[in-house]
Amino acid sequence: MSKRFGPVEAVSDLSFTVEPGRVTGFLGPNGAGKTTTLRMLLGLVRPSEGTATIGGANYQDLARPLATVGTALEAASFHPGRTARNHLAVYAAAAGLPRVRVDAVLEQVGLGAYGDRRVGGYSLGMRQRLGLALALLGDPRVLVLDEPVNGLDPEGIRWIRTFLRELAAEGRTVLVSSHLLSEVQQTVDRLVVISKGKLVYEGGLAGLETEARVIADSPDRGMLDAALLAAGADIQSSAGGVIVSALTAAEVGAIAHRAGVPLSLLHTQQGGLEKAFLDLVGEGSQP
Amino acid sequence: MNAIRAEFVKLLTTKMWWILAIVLFVYVAFTATILSFAFSTGMAAADPTAPQIPADALPPIVYSIAHSIGYVFPLLLGTLAVTGEFRHQTLTPTFLATPRRGRVLAAKLVVMALFGALYGVIAVIAAVGPGAAILSIEGVTGLDDSDIWLMFPRVVLAMALWAIIGVGVGALIPNQVAAIVVVLAFTQFVEPILRTVAGVVDWAAQIGQYLPGAAGDTLAGASIFTAMGMATGDTVPLEWWHGGLLLLAYALVATIVGYLVSWRRDVT
User: Fold this and answer.
1) H or E segment and range at residue B19
2) Which of A183, A211, A236, A267 is paired with A224 by a 20 to 30 Å CA distance?
3) Mean pLDDT of A246-268
4) What is the pLDDT of residues B187-240, one digit of tens each?
5) B91: nearest CA in chain A?
6) Can you list the residues of chain B whose pLDDT is less than 70?
7) Which residues of A touch B111 (CB under 8 A)?
8) Of the partner residues B3, B15, B89, the one whose CB lies closest to the CB of residue A94
């Protein structure tokens, strides 16, 4: 799919698949085109080119949209004068769902006691929960959640992580967007990473992780370099020591020992998912 | 059908509809009271320069206040039903639940027409209640006249059409504040001025009766404007059903253009 807003290309030539029964993280920095992509998937924004389908059908062609796909989008879309219960009742009526679903989802997201309060008086965390309640209203097998963690306090973040895991355990297909990998890292099975409207990574978490590097140093740097090169290692010199890729610290130590080079430094540096993610989206160089 | 039910729930779960209904009732009842007093012959005798209106013509003028003063209320209700969705960004969940957008707009037209009719009933009661009580002092309530009774359903029909026009106006002007300003400015200042001018200038009178407010008055059967216009000129007045068709045309054009202009747009 592509989407242009006037001269701005928000999403360009993006194509990916969300696999059923798994939790897919949809990642990218703010402004990468995540929300636009999700809104195109849901028929709210018309793609300039391409199509998005859910189980083979356009969102507009779904016979029972809320019972097929549950959606919680970033923007708080509430009439402030309506109570949470009535807010949900509107869309239950529109989707032909029984009223008991309204009470059920309010309980499910922990708003049961606050259902008759006006939404205008809700905190951000309560609004996020109400958004999730709407997504769950039709008990859909597919969930699309846009930045559900945004603006939550630590307690709310912990709650939503548990909640996402529960949804995943029930075998639902979940597409959850975030601009921070760490927010969804524990929950997702797969990742789709976009940057500036383009796909930069699609696959499992493991594939994103960069290998650990070994940093070694010696009072005689030249001898260490020679010994490592002789052993066929891939090395890179830096002020803090020699950076060795594709070898463990034990192997580097053994090579130095055999060559009789005294070591002054030997340690392993983890690449880390977050760093790999930031490298992918082109923000790794920023402090 | 689900979309229609959802629109009912939407309307009934916020305060707007009954606040507007109460203001409509008070405003119409108050104006009908003042007007029946002002036009009653006792007052005219006290001030010989006041315009003389034959007693027979009084009831339709007083009762038509229901429409000529009240039509702005269903118009506002219809407008807010659409602009509120834009203002509170509820178009997102609305279109997620009912992705066929034309259905949502059609459901709004149906529900607004019903509530416009309800406003019509409220306005008629508000006008006839105090109006008939005061006019009975003169002995001319007009309630024994079948033409007067035929006027009431026409007022109700006109009010239903105004609510539909409101939906169209809301879709044309999705910005709620702008829409309210336009509705109030047009109905309270622009059209009354145009119609007053049209009432004075003969050639303009023919055109003036095609203005939406005038079309509504034509449908309703009478109004204080047409009463003043009757005194001057020799325009060919439109039939009441002409007024109805004219209002319906305004409603359809506004809704269709609004659908094309704003309703199909990306919801971001």
Assistant:
1) helix B16-39
2) A211
3) 86
4) 888 988 888 887 777 777 777 778 888 888 888 876 666 555 544 445 566 778
5) A77
6) 41-55, 222-237
7) none
8) B3
Interface of B with A (CB under 8 A): 2-3, 5-6, 8-10, 13-15, 84, 88-100, 266-268
Q: What is the pLDDT of residue B47?
A: 56
Tell me how many domains chain B contains. Answer: 1
Considering the entire predicted model, what is its pTM?
0.84
CATH number listed for the domain at residues A213-270: 3.30.70
Q: Using an 8 Å Cβ cutoff, are A282 and A275 in contact?
A: no
Is residue B268 situated within a structural domain? no
In total, the C-beta contacts within 8 angstroms joining chain A to chain B are 83
Identify the CATH homologous superfamily for domain A3-208: P-loop containing nucleotide triphosphate hydrolases (3.40.50.300)
Q: Check if A82 contacts B (Cβ < 8 Å).
A: yes
Average pLDDT over residues A230-248: 82
CB-based contact (8 Å) between A6 and chain B? no
In a domain, B188, yes or no: yes
Sequence-separated contacts (24+) of B247-251 with Cβ below 8 Å: B247/B158, B247/B161, B247/B162, B247/B165, B247/B212, B247/B215, B247/B216, B247/B219, B248/B161, B248/B164, B250/B165, B250/B168, B250/B212, B250/B215, B251/B161, B251/B164, B251/B165, B251/B167, B251/B168
Report the alpha-carbon distance of residue B35 to residue B132 in Å, rounded. Answer: 11
Inter-chain CB proximity B95 and A80 less than 8 Å: no
> Does pLDDT of A284 surpass 70?
no
